[in-house]
Design brief:
Layout (H helix, E strand, L loop, with lengths): L1 E2 L1 E3 L23 H13 L18 H14 L22 E2 H16 L18 H7 L14 E4 L7 E2 L10 E4 H11 L16 H10 L6 H20 L3 E3 L1
Parallel strand pairs: 4-6
Antiparallel strand pairs: 1-3, 2-7, 4-7, 5-6
């Protein structure tokens, strides 16, 4: 199973471009939620949809889903996110989708860091399931880690600063059930960089070429090559998200 990471809804192709009706109300939405959505859209300067609309034009479009995420954020007293209509083209250094196994291995590394900060971590044997590591159960109790608590194949990281991951246990309002902060993601990736013998990258700063070269050299060879690949992709994505004020999208 593979994961594609994109920065900026407009870089999703036609499905991510703003269209009339994209921010339409779900016909099953309660009036209070609809009013919250309307206030949220006005608050970020977006054109609100018509209240008379019978059903949304694209209820599963990324901008419609983001509008519903904004409802959840506002309901929790948190700042909402206004996605730019256009974002610079997104092209990660390492081509092709990321194996989900690489993401899971990076999460395992983070779980060990949370359990024993600063301590070295043993590489996971080839073919082992990162989710079977007992330390993952300990980390699952926490709700303040944005790398660990996120969907494996869908969902958003937003360039909005908040400490606790936003959780939708039903998975109906928030894609993948979780929404994280690009700020916190960048901070967490800095924390675990030394475990991979990589330098911490400051918010919004491009990854230096020598670091990219190092990860490229380690591909398929070093004990943590999958973790390095996931770290590089997410570090680049978090930096682009913070530079351009655009969402990171899993799909």
């Amino acid at each position: 199973m593979n994961l594609e990471v994109v920065v900026g809804l407009s870089n999703l192709g036609p499905e991510g471009l703003p269209r009339d009706g994209d921010l339409a109300f779900d016909p099953m939405m309660e009036r209070e939620a609809a009013e919250q959505l309307l206030a949220s859209l006005r608050g970020v300067g977006a054109r609100p949809p018509s209240l008379a609309l019978a059903e949304p034009a694209s209820p599963n479009g990324p901008r419609s889903m983001l509008a519903r995420v904004n409802v959840q954020l506002r309901a929790r007293g948190m700042p909402t996110h206004a996605e730019p209509a256009e974002a610079p083209p997104w092209q990660p250094t390492l081509p092709g989708p990321l194996p989900v196994e690489a993401l899971l291995r990076l999460r395992r590394l983070m779980a060990h860091h949370l359990a024993r900060p600063g301590m070295a971590v043993e590489p996971l044997p080839s073919g082992a399931d990162p989710r079977a590591d007992p330390v993952m159960e300990i980390a699952a109790v926490r709700r303040d880690n944005h790398l660990i608590h996120h969907g494996d194949a869908e969902g958003f990281y937003l360039p909005v600063s908040f400490s606790q991951v936003v959780h939708d246990p039903t998975g109906t309002t928030i894609p993948g059930g979780w929404v994280g902060s690009s700020h916190r993601l960048a901070e967490e990736l800095r924390e675990i960089a030394p475990l991979l013998d990589l330098p911490p990258i400051e918010d919004g700063t491009a990854v230096p070429q020598h670091v990219i070269d190092r990860v490229m050299r380690d591909r398929d060879a070093a004990p943590f090559h999958l973790e390095e690949r996931a770290w590089l992709l997410h570090t680049e994505a978090a930096a682009a998200s913070l530079r351009h004020g655009a969402a990171i999208v899993y799909r």
